[in-house]
Amino acid sequence: MAGNEAVARWQAVLLWTMVALYMGGRVCQQYPGPVPVLVIVALQVVPPAVFAWVHGGIVYGVRGMVVFTAFCMGVGGLSESLSLRTGFPFGHYFFTSLMGPKFLQVPVLLVLAYVGIGYCSWVVAFLILGYRDKPLVGWRVVALPLLASAVMVAWDVSMDSIWATLDRAWIWRDGGIYFGVPVSNFIGWYLTAFLFYLGFAVYLRANSDLMKPVSLRFWRLAILIYGICALGNLLVFRKGLFPASAADATGRVWATTDILIASVLVSLLAMTPFAVVAWMRSGGVQEPLQK
User: Which of 12, 59, 121, 212 can pair with 152 through a Cys bridge, CB separation 3.0 to 4.6 Å?
Assistant: First the structure.
């Protein structure tokens, strides 16, 4: 018993450490000069991924998280690689050196982002739908991926134009109507997220005894990561962080203020409500699963 309590304490310490590091990464994004850009990117990707593995390992076990990671990185990496070569499903684009090392032209840190934010988006949708005390069967197997995909796409809508048009971490070859980003990107994101979420949901349906009951405080840590992600977008308004305007690959010029306002609006009107509803729906200690 004492050994289990010690493990639980270390897990809690590690989870809170990842939350703190991620929060620090969002603050550091305001200082791309003194803080190396690759460090800023890593702090916004690696802590959520580690958090997902620790948190998800407690809920679904190591085997469950191996399956989740395989679906996320497999489907996500395949979609990115396919789109880089054909334009499907996201559109035509390429990555610059800002995102760090690549494997098959796809930045390793980007694929890790699928795991971190992907897992937290899954938990947010899971709590909103009230599935903590219900087995994942029937229509729930589809409903959860449908909502989780929307929660994750809200994250992409909030940040893609900043990372692409302002930071130029990736370049959309043909530009796009959303501040230089094509609508196909968001449709592709939804399709990709839905596929890996659906794969994991089907796996959970066949392994209904995998999920462990956990407390309110534990669930809310994942919501906190997603909430920090949303509210962190409000920090980009620091004066001098970006030039007054930026051009996409087609030469069309976009006002930086418009891009930042759109990011903040999506963060406040889409991401934040998702987090708030999930927080309110996460109350109590989980009971044994009931049909």
Answer: 121
In angstroms, the CA 164 to CA 186 distance is 13
Beta strands in 152-238 (DSSP E): 170-172
Q: Which pair of structure tokens corresponds to residue 191?
A: 């399709």
Number of CB atoms found within 10 A of residue 208's CB = 11
Q: For 243-282, what is each residue's pLDDT tens digit?
A: 999 999 999 999 999 999 999 999 999 999 999 999 998 8
Q: Is the pLDDT of residue 195 over 60?
A: yes
Neighbouring-strand partners of residue 283: none
Partnered with residue 95 across adjacent β-strands are 170
pLDDT tens digits for 99-108? 888 888 888 8
User: Is the whole-model pTM more than 0.85?
Assistant: yes
Q: How far is CA 20 from the centre of its chain?
A: 17
Mean pLDDT of the chain: 90
CA angle, corner 15, sides to 9 and 18, nearest 5?
140
What is the torsional sign of CA 30, 31, 37, 41?
negative
Measure CA of the first residue to CA of the last residue in the chain; give whole Å.
Answer: 31
* H helix or E strand, kind and range, residue 109: helix 108-128
Residue of 156, 130, 144, 154 lying closest to 68 (CA atoms): 144
Q: Whole-angstrom Cα distance, residue 40 to residue 38?
A: 5
The maximal CA–CA distance of the chain, rounded, in angstroms, is 64
Give the single-character DSSP code of 29: T
The single-letter code of the amino acid at 166 is L
DSSP class of residue 178 equals B
The answer to whether 120 and 193 have CB atoms below 8 angstroms apart is no
d(CA 158, CA 148): 16
Q: Which residues contact 250 (CB under 8 A, 6 or more apart)?
A: 174, 175
